[in-house]
């Protein structure tokens, strides 16, 4: 009798462990109509996911990508930006832009601007690492609108960025294979659309905790074809309604630090969400975080991935890979 019970217990445990975990990393998550979403300063705002978009603003954004600012920083001007203007070759040729150095574009998220923490943090990491053209995209004209409108307008801003980079290429002859597009939250989908505008020719796209609300089944979300190599870092993709990130595979390589749902030292979704860009900046400086390839979601959830290793983040423009990776980090910088 005892032997039979033991066998039954073993079979039950084995069966339970063999069942894939469907919810944590699923596109099937349903958001309520009203959610809380943070601005670039970490302040929470109530968002109506069924709201009416500002069509007048969307039409203007569609017509005029010059609404957005392209702010250049180099080691010659690490703090004081030079403004590059689409269709104004002199703004580029008279600047410190150097076509022999790689270019990194940074796109912030909702209710943010050029001064939001993500921009100086990633900018300084790249400039301290190597000679780089860092271009901060300030798309506040749309980003400061309500979330529903901003999300609707992201593809147009992305196309505008792609057109700007095509113009930059025509003026400087810098190849697209020297360009790395980095975007956070809504900005992650934005740079995906920019890469799509360039026909997937940008060397690399890094999507930092791509926004989840309104994007689960959105054909305009970032995808693996948007660049030569597309990487996503998921830090707040929880199955609860509080998760701000999309929490599902969207790239050639999807990294899930600490499982991709909550981060060490974080007690809020805002902290989890922002950790994505903090981790990227740290890896640009130290290139020290290494993921292991996961065969399935169960391995990812229970932290027993045993596949090939791949370094997360960093500034490598010749990076390549495929699949989803897990790694664990420390609580504080450099993690």
From TrEMBL:
Residues 1-18 form the signal peptide. SUPFAM superfamilies: alpha/beta-Hydrolases. It is found in: Secreted. One of its GO terms (cellular component) is extracellular space. One of its GO terms (molecular function) is serine hydrolase activity. The keyword Translocase does not apply. Keywords: Secreted, Signal. It comes from the Eukaryota. One of its GO terms (biological process) is lipid catabolic process. Residues 67-288 form the Lipase domain. The keyword Secreted applies. Belongs to the AB hydrolase superfamily. Lipase family. PANTHER family: LIPASE, LIPASE DOMAIN-CONTAINING PROTEIN-RELATED. This is Neutral lipase. It comes from Helicoverpa armigera (Cotton bollworm). The lineage of its organism: Eukaryota, Metazoa, Ecdysozoa, Arthropoda, Hexapoda.
